[in-house]
């Protein structure tokens, strides 16, 4: 058996308890897409870790982002920006789930934009009016940096950091919502 095929079978066995929806080996097109995505995933320490995480998260994200290439590109960006900011990628996915349900064009009633619902005033604050907050890479860079800052400001207290991110410090609904999505959908056991 070829080493790559053996690796895919091993990944399916490992991922089986996480998602019962994985029933057979991925289609060749998806396998090639995964290989390209993994090769571009600089934030991973190990290629095997990248393949396992991307396959697992891609399966979970499929109901929100149908296109496999778009899904893998988004996951690579989430992992990259979360890692740069010192955040767990799965908590960032939970925040995106709560904020926009993975709609890059989402706009809140107060004007927050994109997947992580970043307020547009940040562009002026940074002297970058040309930045597009519906661009996933830009939105993730802004959002992960902001959440990381609040997490440090709150000495690692994720509930208070999430409340600050949402502008609801002192209230518990929003942090509970994000933590709920994290525990129910996105948490990755170490």
Question: What does this protein structure show overall?
Answer:
- The structure is a single chain.
- The protein contains 9 helices and no strands.
- By secondary structure, it is mainly alpha-helical.
- It folds into 2 domains: 1-76; 85-190, Orthogonal Bundle (Lysozyme), CATH 1.10.530.10.
- Helix 2 runs parallel beside helix 4 (68-84).
- It is globular and about 45 Å long.
- 35% of the residues are buried.
* Spatial gap, N to C terminus: 30 Å
Helix content: 55-70%
Oligomer: single chain
Radius of gyration: 17 Å
Total helical segments: 9
Give the mean pLDDT: 83
Question: Structural class given helices, strands, pairing?
Answer: mainly alpha
Envelope shape = globular
CATH fold descriptor of the largest domain? Lysozyme
CATH-scheme architecture of the largest domain: Orthogonal Bundle
For the secondary structure, the number of strands is 0
What is the total number of structural domains?
2
How is the biggest beta sheet arranged? Answer: none
Give, in order, the helices and strands.
HHHHHHHHH
Percent of sequence in beta strands: under 5%
Weakly predicted, low-confidence segments: 1-26
Give the C-level CATH assignment of the largest domain.
Answer: Mainly Alpha
């Amino acid at each position: 058996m070829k080493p790559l095929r053996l690796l895919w079978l091993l990944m399916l066995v490992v991922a089986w308890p996480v998602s019962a929806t994985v029933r057979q080996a991925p289609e060749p097109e998806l396998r090639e897409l995964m290989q390209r995505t993994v090769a571009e995933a600089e934030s991973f320490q190990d290629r095997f870790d990248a393949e396992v995480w991307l396959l697992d998260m891609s399966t979970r994200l499929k109901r929100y982002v149908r296109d496999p290439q778009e899904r893998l590109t988004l996951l690579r960006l989430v992992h990259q920006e979360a890692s740069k900011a010192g955040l767990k990628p799965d908590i960032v996915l939970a925040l995106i789930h709560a904020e926009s349900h993975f709609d890059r064009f989402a706009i809140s009633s107060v004007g927050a934009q994109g997947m992580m619902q970043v307020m547009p005033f940040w562009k002026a604050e940074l002297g970058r009016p040309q930045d597009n907050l519906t661009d996933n890479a830009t939105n993730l860079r802004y959002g992960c940096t902001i959440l990381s800052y609040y997490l440090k400001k709150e000495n690692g207290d994720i509930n208070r950091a999430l409340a600050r991110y949402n502008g609801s410090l002192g209230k518990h609904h929003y942090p509970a919502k994000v933590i709920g999505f994290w525990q129910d959908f996105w948490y990755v056991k170490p």
